[in-house]
From TrEMBL:
It comes from Streptomyces ipomoeae. Residues 100-232 form the TIR domain. InterPro entries: TIR_dom, Toll_tir_struct_dom_sf. The lineage of its organism: Bacteria, Bacillati, Actinomycetota, Actinomycetes, Kitasatosporales. Keywords: Receptor. PROSITE patterns: TIR. This is Toll/interleukin-1 receptor domain-containing protein. Residues 1-24, 39-76 are annotated as: Disordered. Residues 1-14 have a biased composition (Basic residues). Gene3D superfamilies: Toll/interleukin-1 receptor homology (TIR) domain (3.40.50.10140). One of its GO terms (biological process) is signal transduction.
Length: 246
């Protein structure tokens, strides 16, 4: 009998669930209500083509997301596309309402500011993503918490870099905890688990662990950054008229 991998790996990413021999293709587990999201406006992906870069399904059942550019070499499982579509729809809606905002606010532990957080920020910026990052966006001498509030208000989507250092900070309380509380309240939040697991995150913040996101144990930081960049690139959607809800 196949054993579930949830205790060791967690199932909060779509690919994590799909890879589980016991649960692959099954239900989606504990996740928050998504009734606040608009219906998806994206057409079904064509099944034509044989390679990851062809725009159709690959031999492994992976495909480009409907929002990916035609030149993209990054592929997704059908479950990943399903899980990320509400975040994509919410991002496009907010971009229509407030087009001047930054693409993402990067929430991270202070200890990661010159390591993994900077790495992720740099990768995103090289892919054209505008990132609010405390290391470069809070000038010396200004009130830290006030600038954090401004950064949150000026960003469409929140990324939370979940590392062992962040888990420690959340257990103790502090700035990261305050940022996270605000992001959770806005329902525009994507965790990026790095160097830890969703199981460890669930022990500290079950609500954050319930959000669909990314895991660098499944994709490299480079691939995760590319997927985020594709998810928040909304220029083409803003030039097209909104699709009426049905």
């Amino acid at each position: 009998m196949s054993r579930c991998t949830a205790p060791r790996r967690g199932h909060r990413t779509a690919s994590g669930r799909a890879a589980c021999p016991a649960c692959g293709g099954g239900g989606y587990g504990y996740s928050p209500s998504r009734s606040y999201y608009p219906p998806s406006a994206y057409p079904s992906q064509s099944s034509g083509g044989s390679g990851a870069t062809s725009g159709g399904s690959s031999s492994s059942g992976r495909t480009r997301a409907p929002w990916s550019p035609s030149t993209s070499s990054v592929t997704y499982t059908s479950a990943e596309v399903k899980d990320l579509t509400p975040a994509r729809d919410a991002t496009v809606m907010r971009a229509r309402q407030q087009p001047a905002l930054r693409d993402v606010f990067l929430c991270h532990a202070w200890d990661d500011r010159r390591g993994s957080a900077k790495e992720l920020c740099d990768l995103l910026e090289t892919k054209g993503v505008s990132v609010w990052f405390s290391e470069k966006d809070i000038p010396y001498g200004l009130p830290f918490m006030r600038e954090i509030d401004r950064g949150l208000a000026k960003s469409r989507t929140g990324l939370v870099l979940v590392t062992p250092a962040l888990l420690t900070r959340l257990e103790r309380g502090g700035v990261s905890d305050k940022e996270l509380s605000e992001l959770l309240a806005r329902n525009l939040l994507l965790p990026v688990v790095h160097g830890t697991t969703y199981g460890e995150l669930r022990n500290v913040s079950p609500l954050l662990a319930s959000r669909n996101g990314f895991d660098t144990a499944e994709d490299s930081m480079e691939v995760v950054a590319t997927k985020i960049a594709e998810l928040v690139a909304v220029e083409d959607d803003l030039t097209a008229p909104p699709t009426p809800a049905t």
